[in-house]
């Protein structure tokens, strides 16, 4: 009631506030446009340059006198402290690397310990079984002896089979060709093939 | 005979005028009391109140871990690392109780970690984006992984923190980064007109970068503050204080204003070498987007980013306008990528009073499924 465009005749303070806000809004928009111009950019750059030019001599003076004073007092300069701080950071980084490696090792130990213990136990048990006096060694030799026997038997059987095959082939031929003598012990290509096939036994 | 409406003839009701004036005087009384408290420092904003522990430090950088508040069965497996900009302090993530993103996420069951870059000193003038993204950040991640016992992690970067997060994600895609959230990320500096005044101010012919850094070492926080405020001079230098004056009788608004003002005024210097990169490599030469920014001997290729990506843009952002953030979606290799455009400004979308009902639940909804 009695309000038009937000204007309330019964609220003078409120109206003043609204008028103020409207004015500020207009200024805000104008200023946003202003700061977005090349002129403003140039102005702000020039202002900054002036500040630097004005403050540089004073800052140099302070730096020089401070350096001299610190040297007279036998205290480290700002540059020296800066260098020292950088070195401390490098050391910190190396410590960080070492710390993380220790953490990783600890973690691995914690999680892998049962596996490691199991492996060690198995190995110990195996060693124990194999090293029961000289019996273990004898058993292993006996096993090797047995394997060698098996291999010899196999070779004999193969040689026998090769001879039988050669005889059968000869019988099948109409005009028997003179027997090609073979070097004793030289395996035929078939034998070589078979040998390869049984190498794993 | 025509009759005019009564309101036009007698628009002013003296009783109402007196009542309004009385209300105003009463308000001024309360405002005066509060104004004195603020002026004398008796009324201070309590910021960064969520319980936390510093679990790692390196130089000025600290990694914080926030104590979980959700029951064990509600907790998410994948931890969340928050990375803020090199400008101002990261407690904007944890501004004040009831208005804290950290508090909200901790309550939702996330293991929240936060990197505080600290304030660079004279010994840190040489620090570059490379140092932050590829030296400090990976170390912090490594520590977080050890602490949480999880290799997978999510990272949320805000403002230049998002730029750092993007560099990290591009250069170390196999470190376990599963989810990447970029919040108002300045990535693309190609559209100089749309970005606003910064590219103009930072032009080589106007802005004497070498002279400034030679004299100051690091770029002073006060200069950054003034620069940001000059983007909207009337609002920031006048309107902001008038808003406080108008609401001095409302403790809730005063508390909120003070918290935000404390943060805005709590600037830190920008490491000199990194600031040079910000001006030259990013604002002037747009190297990150062009793929010509060389770090550790190889270009930062945004195409290497393969983590799930949530890109958040503030529609009214005058510091990082939408055009600076939206184009990253076309560059990354992530197959799972989403974009949210929220109404609000650069800080307001995340730290404003509406964030609890606006952006935060959206971040939670996106992240929750990807944090199992």
Keywords:
heterodimer, A: 201 residues, mainly alpha, 5 helices, 80% helix, B: 372 residues, alpha/beta, Rossmann fold, eight-stranded mixed sheet, two-stranded antiparallel ribbon, 16 helices, 10 strands, 43% helix
Q: Would you state the CATH class of chain B?
A: Alpha Beta
Quick check: average pLDDT of chain B? 93
Oligomeric state of shown chains = heterodimer
Beta percentage of chain B is: 5-15%
Order of helices and strands of chain B: HHEEEHEHEHEHHHHHHHHEEEHEHH
Please state how the strands of the largest beta sheet of chain B are arranged side by side: 1-2-4-3-5-6-9-10
Strand content of chain A: under 5%
Biggest pleated sheet of chain B: 8 strands, mixed
Termini separation of chain A (Å)?
110 Å
Give the N-to-C terminal Cα separation of chain B.
80 Å
Q: What gross morphology of chain A would you assign?
A: elongated
Most extensive chain interface and residues per partner: A-B, 45 and 43 residues
Please bin the fraction of helical residues of chain B.
40-55%
Classification by helices and strands of chain A: mainly alpha
Give the helix tally of chain B.
16
- Output the CATH homologous superfamily of chain B: Alpha/Beta hydrolase fold, catalytic domain
Radius of gyration of chain B: 23 Å
Describe the largest sheet of chain A: none
Spans of chain B of at least 5 consecutive residues whose pLDDT stays below 50 are none
Radius of gyration of chain A: 50 Å
Proportion of residues in helical segments of chain A: over 70%
Give an overview of the whole structure:
The complex is a heterodimer of chains A (201) and B (372). With 201 residues, chain A is mainly α. Among the domains of chain A are: 79-131; 142-172 and 187-201. Chain A has 5 helices and no strands. Chain A has helices spanning 12-35, 38-72, 78-130, 135-172, 189-198. In chain A, helix 4 (135-172) packs antiparallel against helix 5. The termini of chain A are far apart. By secondary structure, chain B is α/β, with parallel strands linked by helices. Chain B has a single domain, classed as 3-Layer(aba) Sandwich (Rossmann fold), CATH 3.40.50.1820. In chain B, strands 1-2-4-3-5-6-9-10 form an 8-stranded mixed β-sheet, with helices on both faces. In chain B, a hairpin with a 2-residue loop joins strand 7 and strand 8 (298-299). In chain B, helix 4 (129-148) packs across helix 5. The chains are: A mainly alpha (201), B alpha/beta (372).
